[in-house]
Design goal:
Layout lengths: L1 H31 L11 H5 L2 H17 L6 H6 L25
Helix pairs in contact: 1-3
């Protein structure tokens, strides 16, 4: 049984890794403005930055745009709290017991 569980978990982990890598590539393509997977970039970036600087810039922008969520102030968070629902009095919530002879 243990082998079956390990194989299933390994397959799930590999699938999750594959999907995550695809989403990271899609986010990087969005940041760079590439709309087609077959797009061959021009040398626009090579004239201004080194490959390491370009990678750092793209990685920072991917994290800021797709991973981090914007921080909200406590006032913004409190304004999103839904109002408490009005609960009818407890005596209206009781139902008949159903046991023969029970007055409740």
């Amino acid at each position: 049984m243990r082998d079956h569980v390990e194989v299933a978990i390994h397959d799930c982990r590999e699938h999750l890794r594959f999907v995550t890598e695809g989403l990271v590539v899609l986010a990087a393509m969005t940041v760079l403005g590439w709309s087609d997977k077959d797009y061959i970039p021009s040398s626009d970036y090579s004239n201004t930055t080194t490959p390491q600087e370009l990678l750092d810039t793209v990685a920072d922008k991917v994290v800021k745009d797709f991973v981090l969520i914007p921080c909200k102030t406590s006032d913004q968070l409190l304004s999103q709290v839904p109002p408490k629902p009005k609960v009818p009095p407890a005596e209206n919530l009781r139902t008949a017991c159903g046991y023969p002879g029970c007055p409740k």
